[in-house]
Design goal:
Elements lengths: L4 H14 L3 E8 L5 E7 L2 H4 L2 H10 L19 E7 L7 H15 L3 H9 E6 L4 H14 L39 H13 L3 E6 L8 E3 L1
Parallel strand pairs: 3-4, 3-5
Antiparallel strand pairs: 1-2, 2-4, 5-6
Length: about 220
């Protein structure tokens, strides 16, 4: 079963509520009023000082910042990482991977993960296109057979039109980063420019033979 967006939101909010390593931010709503969010994950010390870290990070980048600093950042300054998932709603495993990623980063007590979080702030966007995802999720959960049908012509393998790739108005949000016409893009771009991450990722799928890949 594919996870509906409202359950993804609830889980991210739950992680934010129970852990000092996570803090949730809402940056907008879709046309169908689904929430758009970022889950910040880092060490408890950095989570408690997120705004101060963001402001200092921008001060090294923006010449118009009142405290602009043209010197090199300290070597121990955290790396700002944006993990983005699900710009195409019918590429569902990306948002499912976001759930596992958030769980692992927040719950792990391993020295390796603690070391990651001590050196970075991870800003995780689990579903860039919630309207498309839920349209696809409804189809997938409705038509999934038990047992699974192997015939490629079966309804469970052929998503009906218009499919979940696009947003409410059937626009491919992966083509909207320049113009920023739609609320999903406008909210994300406003948030993005407020943080200016060092690393930005876009987790997607391709076809049946290629699974998750990452564009940086």
């Amino acid at each position: 079963m594919h996870t509906r967006h409202d359950l993804i939101v609830s889980y991210m909010q739950y992680l934010s509520n129970i852990s000092e390593k996570a803090q949730i931010f809402y940056y907008g709503n879709t046309y169908e009023k689904r929430k758009l969010l970022i889950l910040a994950i880092s060490s408890p010390e950095k989570i408690s000082n997120l705004e101060e870290i963001r402001d200092e990070h921008i001060s090294y980048i923006d010449p118009d910042h009142p405290n602009y600093n043209n010197q090199a950042k300290p070597e121990d300054f955290p790396v700002i990482i944006n993990l983005g998932y699900g710009v195409h709603g019918n590429e569902p495993s990306s948002s499912e991977a976001a759930l596992l990623t958030a769980y692992t980063l927040v719950s792990s007590e391993s020295d390796e993960i603690k070391n990651y979080l001590s050196q970075s702030i991870i800003l995780l966007d689990p579903t860039i296109n919630p309207d498309g995802r839920d349209r696809h999720t409804h189809w997938a959960n409705t038509y999934k057979g038990s047992p699974i049908v192997a015939d490629p012509q079966d309804a469970e393998h052929n998503e009906y039109w218009p499919g979940g790739r696009t947003n409410h108005y059937w626009f491919d949000l992966n083509r909207d980063w320049y113009l920023g016409i739609h609320p999903e893009s406008r909210g994300k771009l406003k948030w993005y420019h407020s943080w200016q991450p060092n690393v930005t990722t876009d987790f997607m799928k391709w076809d049946q033979t290629v699974h998750i890949f990452c564009s940086i």
